[in-house]
């Protein structure tokens, strides 16, 4: 731990659990700030998730359209899903890709990990790249309704430019794909 | 609205507010699924935020190190902050860049918008690019402790490859910068 991190730590004075649900747990922590004052931090705990950048033999990215209740709209995302208790991210990525899209991959490797909203939530997403994918039958969860969409890099870039792709993990994955393609051309 | 969106909508049967805090409001909505069954959705409401990709005359990106209580660690991010009630994203971007880093920009334009965690939260981030920036004195909030860091694109790429940059909005902004640089070289 370097000097800066030590100085800036917020010590927990007390923690109150406000809600414990199926997906999230909400705590309010009373903290001691670096300047000695007290403050409160509202924290959403989440089990973490995986997302998968899967590119087909035809050089198309596998995406899903899904209704997202918090936004009250249907958006376009890469396949993703929550980690089950004790589940390894790699196993989760293999499982979620199959469940949501039917695809299985000969090779699945982690390419990034990131926190989605570090100001108020601890959700982490492990991003995987699936290679040599084979189509098959999807097996969505009983409360999950998704539609498969396959897009070329040009279609993806048009959708990004038109602000039609508005999901953070999806933008990170698609930019990764785009960077990979551009670097090959340099 | 196309056929798919209509079919997949989850109708709200009832909504219960569990918590109303300073930063987040937590609701549990009882919904009717597309298959007619009932389910519950846990939803975190957030006022939205801005983030700023600011590049200096020396071609360095302006970043901040900040302790994030939900993660219990200090991470490296681009400047960002929450929208105040009724505040326009552009005004918020100008204000937050000044408060957190002291920099002011001659030109500030929106380059993306995205939802950080559409599965359980409605937080949206408007990403701006600040151009022709001038240094000045920072004015952080009284419960905000940040340290300024300025990095070249090579330093950024090394940190990304080493998984030292692990914030979603920051990865999106830095990939945007990287793509811009690569496209100029093609």
Describe the structure.
Two copies of one chain form a homodimer. The first copy, chain A, is an alpha+beta fold. Chain A has helices spanning 3-8, 89-101, 153-161, 168-185, and strands at 11-20, 24-32, 38-46, 49-54, 61-68, 73-77, 80-82, 104-115, 124-134, 146-151. In chain A, the strands form three sheets. Chain A has a four-stranded mixed beta sheet, with helices on both faces. Chain A has a three-stranded antiparallel beta sheet with strand order 1-2-3, with no helix packed on it. Chain A has a three-stranded antiparallel beta sheet with strand order 6-5-10. In chain A, strand 8 (104-115) and strand 9 (124-134) form a beta hairpin. The radius of gyration of chain A is 19 Å and the shape is globular. The mean pLDDT of chain A is 94. The interface between A and B is large, with 76 and 76 residues. Chains A, B: InterPro entries: NUDIX_hydrolase-like_dom_sf, NUDIX_hydrolase_CS, NUDIX_hydrolase_dom. Chains A, B: One of its GO terms (cellular component) is cytosol. Chains A, B: One of its GO terms (molecular function) is hydrolase activity.
């Amino acid at each position: 731990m370097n000097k800066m991190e030590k100085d800036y730590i917020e010590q927990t004075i007390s923690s109150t659990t406000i809600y414990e649900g199926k997906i999230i747990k909400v705590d309010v922590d009373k903290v001691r700030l670096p300047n000695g004052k007290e403050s409160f931090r509202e924290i959403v705990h989440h089990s973490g998730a995986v997302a998968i950048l899967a590119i087909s033999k035809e050089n198309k990215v596998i995406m899903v359209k899904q209704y997202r209740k918090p936004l009250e709209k249907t958006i376009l995302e890469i396949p993703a899903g929550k980690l089950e208790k004790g589940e390894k991210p790699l196993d989760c990525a293999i499982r979620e890709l199959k469940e949501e899209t039917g695809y299985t991959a000969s090779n699945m490797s982690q390419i990034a990990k990131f926190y989605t909203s570090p100001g108020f939530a601890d959700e982490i997403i492990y991003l995987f790249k699936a290679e040599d994918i084979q189509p098959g039958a999807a097996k969505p969860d009983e409360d999950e309704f998704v539609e498969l969409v396959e897009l070329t890099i040009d279609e993806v870039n048009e959708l990004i430019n038109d602000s039609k792709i508005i999901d953070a993990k999806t933008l990170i994955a698609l930019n990764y794909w785009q960077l990979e393609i551009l670097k090959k051309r340099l």
